Amino acid sequence: MKKKAKQTPENLTRRESLLLENIRAGKTISDAAREAGFSKKWPGQAGSQAFKNIQKKMPTILDDLGLTYEAIIKEIKDSKNI
Q1: Is residue 40 within 8 Å of residue 3, measured between CB atoms?
Q2: 45, 39 in Cβ contact below 8 A?
Q3: For labelling, which of 20, 48, 49, 61 has a CA lying 20 to 30 Å from the CA of 30?
Q4: What is the Cα gyration radius of the chain?
């Protein structure tokens, strides 16, 4: 059985890092998660959960970058005129 690497705020997984890069590039959470290698069946749910886990690890950094969950949802709604 593989041991999981201990996660610290400075130690995001590769998929988490890719998720953040995709979100910063303006992709939706679903698209960002799919391209980062998360579940293809439910990418929105997987991306949302991964983003929440990242927030737990790095709340200060995410806030400084403007990548709060609420800010991303607002950007999605604004881009789709919802």
Answers
A1: no
A2: yes
A3: 61
A4: 13
Tens of pLDDT, residue by residue over 34-77, are 999 999 999 999 999 998 988 788 776 677 777 787 888 888 88
46 Cβ neighbours under 8 A, 6+ residues apart:
33, 38, 39
Instruction: Tell me if 53 sits within 8 A of 39, measured CB to CB.
Output: no
Tokens 């799919």 correspond to what residue?
Answer: 34
Question: CA-to-CA distance for 79 and 3, rounded, in angstroms?
Answer: 41
Entry pTM: 0.60
Closest alpha carbon to 42 in 55, 29, 54: 29
